[in-house]
Design a protein that fits this description.
Helix content: 40-55%
Largest sheet: 2 strands, antiparallel
Subcellular location: Nucleus
Distance between the termini: 80 Å
Shape: flat
Structural class: mainly alpha
Number of strands: 2
Keywords: Nucleus
Organism: Apiospora saccharicola
Main location: nucleus
Order of helices and strands: EEHHHHHH
Radius of gyration: 21 Å
Protein name: RNA polymerase Rpb4
């Protein structure tokens, strides 16, 4: 008679997709992770790519990295380092904002508080419309520089 082996049980991974950015943020495993705006990510990846090129003479850049950099360059609202840093300082002055919310505000560059609170519903009770409009106007000043 063949012996039966006891089946070992593996823990099931938590299903992906339980994250939600609605009126309350439920970011799962990403809750405490630093979040970058598109402009910050663009600066970071371009700097890494440039350092690789300088260090090796001829850096091997994957197609995925190249396409990601192209995407970020196309959709980044702030192009130079000083403006990216200024926007991050502005947004960082609001401790009531989660890192994710700051990154969204820095990436979306909404025209007004209504648009911002529609696209980022978790801002609803964190800031008044007037104060958010003022902040968005300040952020907007760095877009055309």
């Amino acid at each position: 008679m063949a012996s039966q082996h006891q089946q070992t049980a593996r823990t099931k991974p938590v299903p992906a997709g339980n994250e939600e950015a609605s009126s309350e943020l439920h970011l799962g495993e990403f809750q405490d992770v630093d979040t970058l705006s598109l402009s910050e990510a663009s600066l970071l990846l371009n700097a890494i790519s440039e350092n690789r090129r300088k260090g090796k003479g001829e850096a091997h850049e994957t197609e995925m990295l190249s396409k990601t950099i192209d995407y970020l360059d196309a959709f980044s609202r702030f192009k130079n380092k000083e403006n990216v840093e200024a926007v991050e300082r502005l947004l960082g002055a609001y401790p009531q904002f989660h890192k994710f919310e700051r990154a969204q505000l820095g990436s979306l560059c909404c025209d007004n508080a209504e648009e911002a609170k529609t696209l980022i519903p978790s801002l609803q009770d964190k800031i008044s419309d007037n104060e958010l409009d003022d902040l968005l106007n300040e952020v907007g000043k760095f877009m055309n520089q």
